[in-house]
Amino acid sequence: MTFLRRYTDRLSFLHLQRLGRSAWAVAAALALCALAACDPQRLSELQPGVSTEADVRDRFGAPENVWNEPDGGRTLEYNRQPAGQVNYMMTIGPDGRLQAARQVLTPEVFARVQPGMEMSQVRRMLGKPAKTMYFALKAETEVDWRFVSPGGTPQVFTVVHGGDQRVIRTRSADDMEAPEFRGGGR
Q1: d(Cα 18, Cα 27) in Å, to the nearest integer?
Q2: Cα–Cα separations (whole angstroms), residue 150 to 26, 89, 135, 178
Q3: Each residue of 86-115: pLDDT tens digit?
Q4: C-alpha span between 169 and 114 (Å, rounded)
Q5: Are 85 and 131 in contact, with CB atoms under 8 Å apart?
Q6: Distance between CA 160 and CA 142 in Å, rounded?
Q7: Residue 136: is it exposed, middle or buried by C-beta count within 10 angstroms (0-12/13-18/19+)?
Q8: For residues 61 and 80, is the Cβ–Cβ distance under 8 A?
Q9: Which of 135, 138, 117, 139 is nearest to 126 (CA)?
């Protein structure tokens, strides 16, 4: 009887451990959604020319990347990929004040990505991508950024580059991984 009791206790413990991990994963996913949902509120609290870098960091946290500007300023990258559909670039002037807060995953910014451009320039312009896939037979790499079109449709902007790290072509298509396109039952 003692063996059976220990066995069932162990099964219960393992079940609770798994449930705990699942609950943790759900909580983390909800936190990520809440973080993205709070972005418009956080942006509205910042004022160019008035807000400081400390104000930006207070509202958005540590940036994904910091880009030094030629004038002595800095651009802070706040990435919401791969689950989100925006990437923010917050430009801080040499005086330490916010100059601009931009959501860079837009058709206007995508139009600036041209064949022959270096991928380091694209990365600097768009922020961290959602996904990168290498295709050995073509010797090409596809880099994706998730965004929402002006009409509200979830889409993916793809930049294709070769081994020389230069853009070959770009395209936009519906984001088939978005919940709107996944359908009902799983």
Answers
A1: 14
A2: 30, 19, 31, 16
A3: 999 999 999 999 999 999 999 999 999 999
A4: 7
A5: no
A6: 5
A7: exposed
A8: no
A9: 117
